[in-house]
Amino acid sequence: MTIYEFLYYIILPILSISGFLVFLRFMKGPSLSDRVIALDLLITIGIGIIAIYSIINNKPTLLDIAMILALIAFLGTVAFSYYLEKRSKNE
């Protein structure tokens, strides 16, 4: 089994199923925190899919896009935690 077969038959289906399950959690999430964490995980799964696509098609420039997406996701999570901290101080 080559690395490409491993990526096609094992990793991509696992990422697809996990993305679907996390999307369901994102839609159903009982609180705002659950939805933000699910969105962060969806972005992380998307980064994994972009990285695998980059490896399969030999396009290393897509890894730069994945890195930028990771930085945006990190900044979004930090902004949300800052919002929660300010909201709890006002109450």
Number of strands: 0
Order of helices and strands: HHH
Q: Residue ranges: pLDDT <50 for 5 or more in a row? A: none
Global morphology: elongated
Mean pLDDT: 91
Whole-number tally of structural domains: 1
Could you give the distance between the termini? Answer: 58 Å
* Range of helix content: over 70%
Give me the Rg, rounded. 16 Å
Biggest sheet, open or closed, and with what strands and sense?
none
Structural class: mainly alpha
What share of residues are in beta strands? under 5%
> Count the helices. How many?
3
What is the subunit organization of this protein? single chain
Give the structure's gist in a few sentences.
The chain is an all-alpha fold and 91 residues long.
